Each structure stands twice: as C-alpha cells, then as structure tokens.
Amino acid sequence: MSQFFVGGAAFILALVLYSLGRRPSRPFLRSTDVSGVAALNRAQVELVQAAVAEAEAASSSAELEWHSPRSTRESLALQQRLRKAMNGGPDERLEAVTLAGRWGNQSMLPLLRRGLRDSDSRVMEAAAAALADQRGATRVRPSAPVSPPRNASKTS
Fold first, then answer.
1. Cβ proximity of 127 and 108 under 8 Å
2. pLDDT in tens, 111-138
3. Cβ-Cβ contacts under 8 Å for 9 (sequence gap 6 or more)
C-alpha cells in the first residue's frame, strides 16, 4: 500500500511542477504594427515589376532591330564587333552573347563557350541558352549516296 501512495505522490508532484513550469501564452511582438512593412514590400515589388517590364520592352525592340548578316562583309564585321564586345564590360558581353546566340552561326561557338566561363552570371545563362539552341546534328548530309565502283565484284 505504501508503494501506491509513493507513486501517487510522485505523480501529483510531477503534475504540480509541470503546471508551474508552463508560462501563459502571450502574443510575440504585441506592439508591432506590420501594415507599414507590408506597404513598403508592396511598393518595392511594384518597382521591380516596372523595371522588368521596361527591360522586356527594351529587349523586344532590340529583337525587332536584329537581322542576320546578308553578305560575307557584314558577317565578318559582325564577328569582329562581337569579339571586341566580349572584351568590354558585362553589359557589352551580355549583348554580344545574345546576338551570337540569335545569329546561330558555327563561327560563334568559341565566343559562346567563352561566355560560359564569364564572371557575370547573366552572361553565363545567356551563353548556355544560346548553346542549347545550337545542340544537335550540325553536319550536312551528302545529297546523293556514293555508288560503288563498276567493278566492285572484282575487288577483294
């Protein structure tokens, strides 16, 4: 019977200690008004969205101006201009990689591979996207199959 009382006393003691250890729940930062913070966040999001819209409008107008070179002279001038731009600042390198990707000529593959190792992440992403468009069969297939020689049966 004494074991029953000792166990009951231990249970009651544990219950009392547990209830004393719990603190009443109260709100965390009761005095903070978050409406000002939310308004600031909305204003910043609107600014970012406006900047993205302006950048898309600028890139779409640049896409309208782009045309592939029509002669050898134009293609050589474009290659030289793009290589010179790759030695410039990050915006110039980004434009060079973007134009090289739009052109899609095999002579621009070294420039695009150089763009993959660039220090600017935007240039790296643009080069990777341009190279992804270039992947695939690049060899020109012969137009007619080559026929065997007339005396093929005598050769062996």
1. no
2. 999 999 999 999 999 999 999 987 775 6
3. none
